[in-house]
Amino acid sequence: MQYQQHAQGECRQASNATISIPVEHYFSRCGEGVTVDCTFPIYHQTNWGENIFVVGNITELGNWDPYKGVALNAIQYTGANPLWDGGNANIAAGASFEYKFIQWGINGTLTWECGPNRVYTIPSDQCVSDIVVSGPQNWRDGQTQSCDLDS
Question: Which of 62, 64, 97, 112 has CB atoms 3.0–4.6 Å from 58's, for a disulfide?
Answer without folding.
Answer: 97
